[in-house]
Protein 1
Amino acid sequence: MQVKALENFRENVRTAMTELSLTQDVLADRARISRPYLNRVLAGKQEPSITVCDKISDALSVSFALLLSTPQAFRRHLKKIMENAVAVT
């Protein structure tokens, strides 16, 4: 994976976790990966496999492609998702 895309992925996962009030424990559990592994991925100490990236995107209910987008584009899209979720409830 290209360095910039991987940086975007990490930042966007952290942003989603914050917006959704998810801890690393909860996200790791939902993604069916270990919390230490997730921690290393988010800290930039380990490059995740495509399979792990896909598991994380599924756990966050966003597309893998969206997690690779620029952080600005991701925040705009996440804001729309959150607004739609509030409008539905």
Protein 2
Amino acid sequence: MTVLYFTGHTSAQAQDLFVANNSGAFHDAILRYSETGAFLGIFAGEQPLRSPAGLAFDKGGDLYIANLGNDTIHRFSSTGTDLGAFASSGLLGLLALRLTTMA
């Protein structure tokens, strides 16, 4: 598998790597890799994601995704359950938020 274009990544407490991908077979998806680089599958994909970018985990293990295509920050549980939109904005793609760390 080749990831052609990704826009963000972060690591969970278990050291898995999560990658926001915007191209190829897994377009608009969050891909999960093991700490050894093995592809573990799609963590979240397609609806409600449109051009996912910045990724961050909170202390409870929830994943927050800056969703450029619909100007939201979307939240997923540590098991991949869609918890809905956490925030929305009129800012172009939420780039001003630059999700890098969640306290």
Protein 3
Amino acid sequence: MKLATTEQRIERLRKLMEEPQPKGTTFSDVHKAIESIMERPVWTHEMAFPEMLYEEIRNGHVGETFGKSLQEIAKTKPVIGIVIDESHTKPNGLKPVACPRDDDRTVKP
């Protein structure tokens, strides 16, 4: 969905993020619509900070909200980065990851 102006994109995104959606609208429907407006994949945690998405549209800095939203989350919760060993990835590029126990402080390759 290519909207004509920046303000139209922001207004459509605001309606999706802040107003009740019609009965029968699924989270998946809303998520797809948000990605269409943003013209990129949107992580679900980015939806917790809609002002950052609005700012991204206004400023045209695509994708900057991902890092900013992680910084916001990190203010109150631990953020753990995981590096995926590409030799063990599935066809979609992902692999299952096990989190170490709290008492296991070693990092294994």
